User: What shape does this take?
Amino acid sequence: MKIVQPSVRLLHATPYPEHVIEAAGRICYQSDWKADPCQECKGLDDDFQATCVVCGGYGTSAASADAFTRKVLKRGHESVIEHVSAGFRVVTDRGVTHELVRHRIASFSQESTRYCDYAGGGQFGGELSFIEPPFPTHAELGHDAAARWLRVMADIESKYMSLRGEGVKPELARSVLPCSLKAEIAMTCNAREWRHFLRLRLSPRAHPQMRQVARLIADELLRWCPCLFEDVTNDGVAT
Assistant: This one.
């Protein structure tokens, strides 16, 4: 039995997201002429053929793109930010993945307990991996919930391995697997849906393990496109 920590890794993201948003958004207003030109390549490139590493060939300055992105957010014109997206590889428990897949404006690829044989060798090492819930302390509960949980997980692992040893296929043996089982899932959303996701899943009312995953995602999104997510707080998205 193995205990692992939740984690998040950025798989892919739209390059130059602020520039994409500005290029798409200015179509609405026919206001390309208001954009400040990139100081490196000195102007717009309508065919997107430029190789400028500063603006990605969009021809506008970072300051212009950032300002435009902040402006559309302030106006609530969030359809424009749907043109950029990001995807993550998330390691969490199956209980959290059941909540993740409720976000329907997204794409998912999830670890399959039907086709993954945890009793086999190879990548699983013949053992199950679990995510430990953030239990209250012994002093708070009057008993050691974490120790009890560990005993239950060890028993479940034993039962799963026993079923597999008796010839039960993984797709049926999985019926004994708990919500605490480690699960990996790829999740891709456009920026508007990520903001909606963070608004819901960073809320103090959200499940604590979901909040943990949402916080990790928020940190990565902020690094990817600061002006789109600079209003994210520990409790959601500022309004």
Remarks:
- The beta strands are 2-3, 7-13, 85-93, 107-110, 129-130, 182-190, 232-233, 236-237.
- The CA atoms of residues 84 and 176 lie 40 Å apart.
